């Protein structure tokens, strides 16, 4: 099994990524860290050779991708995740889910619309209308 972990290069040696590496080694899983900012996407009919890592086309796609880009996920990182999804790679955290998780209000609205209990939440703007806060909270 071959797994890619998408993360910023400066996070490759973060504790959790080192733990991934240790466990993968024990389980004989091939693990590759990829910085999405070092990828190039080319849209083609062929598809398979449409992703470059560095200056080289990917000869083999992974069996699984684990995005670890967090709240710093850029448009480009999301595009890389989405591209891998379209190529049929199993992606642990889909691009749409990563984008949703970055937006606290959208996440709260999604949870509420699915009957998940949430705390009352206000999207405030400056200047804050104190009368709304007094009335609602």
Quick check: average pLDDT? 91
Radius of gyration: 19 Å
Helical stretch tally: 5
Number of domains: 1
Helix-strand category: alpha/beta
Shape: elongated
Q: Work out the helicity level.
A: 25-40%
- The poorly predicted ranges are none
Content of β-strand? 15-25%
- The counted number of beta strands is 7
How far apart, in Å, are the first and last alpha carbons?
52 Å
* Name of the CATH architecture: 3-Layer(aba) Sandwich
Q: How would you sum up the major sheet?
A: 4 strands, parallel
Strand order of the largest sheet: 2-1-6-7
- Name the helix and strand elements from N-terminus to C-terminus, one letter apiece: EHEEEEEHEHHH
Which CATH class?
A: Alpha Beta
CATH fold assignment: Rossmann fold
């Amino acid at each position: 099994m071959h797994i890619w972990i998408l993360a910023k290069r400066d996070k490759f040696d973060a504790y959790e990524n080192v733990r991934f590496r240790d466990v993968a080694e024990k389980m004989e899983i091939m693990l590759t860290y990829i910085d999405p900012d070092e990828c190039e996407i080319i849209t083609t009919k062929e598809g398979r050779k449409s992703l470059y890592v560095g200056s080289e086309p990917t000869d083999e796609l992974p069996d699984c991708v684990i995005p670890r880009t967090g709240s710093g996920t850029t448009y480009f990182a999301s595009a890389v995740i989405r591209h891998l999804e379209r190529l049929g790679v199993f992606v642990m955290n889909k691009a749409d889910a990563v984008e949703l998780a970055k937006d606290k209000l959208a996440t709260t609205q999604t949870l509420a619309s699915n009957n998940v209990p949430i705390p009352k939440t206000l999207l405030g703007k400056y200047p804050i209308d104190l009368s709304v806060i007094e009335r609602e909270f």
